[in-house]
């Protein structure tokens, strides 16, 4: 009789444990990935309350920042923000391989102007960026871009160039379009410190934004600021022989990105301290992303 009671007691305990495990499982495995798994496809004209997550037509996810009657997430950026589904970055092909948590770890002192959502919103301008090749290559490119950004802005602290004495030097007035915003208006701004009137003209033309007449957009609008930096990274060779994007996806290494950005001032032994600063940031960021930095780190 006593044995039966003990057996019954054990069965009751096991049943309670099993129930607890079943009820605890959802919270233990719950993540933003689950939110995305159940997210509906976005539909124009449907009502969305703040906090709603939808899957857009390109496969990316967006969260409603404000109630809205089905505005397009790509166009209505005040109502919608890009949504990252996993702590390790979005693993879908072509998606940005850096999560918001990793971004914040990389830039713990960053200026509030430089938002993660602003960066993600800018990615559509250059979908090949950090979206080309294997996941390792994509992570390396994201780390390489952000490492150069880290160096140029002091950890995403500075929005504009700090040496104001340089400001009047960035105007080539003999260009056909001149310097309509003023002789001293084209100083360094944004993540890669876009400077010179001809760069503002070219970046604005490529992005469909009149940066030549309104260069201050690069310091007042986070998405424009990030897009201008991505324009340089993906299309400009600078003093190098290839774009920074090409340097990474073609296996030429982080050192070639330095050459394309500021090689005339830093590479070939001109300023090894500056080069090492960039390399150290790159190594730290690849470690955060859990990817090997690859070779040819210096220039």
From TrEMBL:
Superkingdom: Bacteria
Residues covered by the Glycoside hydrolase family 19 catalytic domain: 103-299
Keywords: Disulfide bond, Plant defense, Signal
Signal peptide span: 1-24
Matches recorded under CDD domains: chitinase_GH19
InterPro entries linked to this entry: Glyco_hydro_19, Glyco_hydro_19_cat, Lysozyme-like_dom_sf
Protein name: Chitinase
Organism of this sequence: Streptomyces luteireticuli
């Amino acid at each position: 009789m006593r044995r039966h009671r003990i057996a019954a007691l054990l069965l009751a305990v096991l049943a309670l444990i099993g129930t607890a495990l079943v009820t605890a499982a959802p919270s233990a495995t719950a993540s933003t990935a689950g939110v995305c798994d159940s997210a509906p496809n976005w539909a124009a004209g449907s009502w969305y309350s703040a906090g709603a997550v939808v899957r857009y037509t390109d496969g990316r996810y967006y969260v409603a920042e404000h109630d809205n009657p089905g505005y397009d997430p790509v166009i209505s950026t005040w109502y919608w923000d890009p949504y990252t589904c996993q702590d390790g970055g979005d693993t879908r092909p072509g998606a940005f391989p850096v999560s918001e948590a990793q971004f914040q770890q990389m830039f713990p002192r960053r200026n509030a102007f430089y938002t993660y959502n602003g960066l993600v919103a800018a990615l559509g301008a250059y979908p090949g960026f950090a979206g080309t090749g294997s996941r390792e290559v994509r992570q390396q490119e994201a780390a390489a871009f952000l490492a150069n950004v880290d160096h140029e802005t002091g950890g995403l602290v500075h929005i504009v160039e700090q040496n104001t004495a340089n400001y009047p030097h960035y105007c080539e007035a003999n260009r056909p379009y001149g310097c309509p915003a003023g002789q001293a208006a084209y100083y360094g701004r944004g993540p890669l410190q876009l400077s010179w009137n001809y760069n503002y003209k070219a970046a604005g033309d490529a992005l469909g934004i009149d940066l030549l007449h309104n260069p201050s957009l690069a310091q007042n609008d986070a998405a424009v600021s990030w897009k201008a930096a991505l324009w340089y990274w993906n299309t400009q060779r600078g003093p190098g022989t290839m774009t920074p994007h090409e340097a990474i996806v073609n296996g030429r290494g982080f050192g070639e990105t330095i050459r394309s950005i500021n090689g005339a001032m830093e590479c070939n032994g001109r300023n090894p301290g500056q080069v090492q600063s960039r390399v150290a940031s790159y190594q730290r960021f690849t470690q955060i992303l859990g990817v090997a930095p690859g070779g040819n780190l210096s220039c």
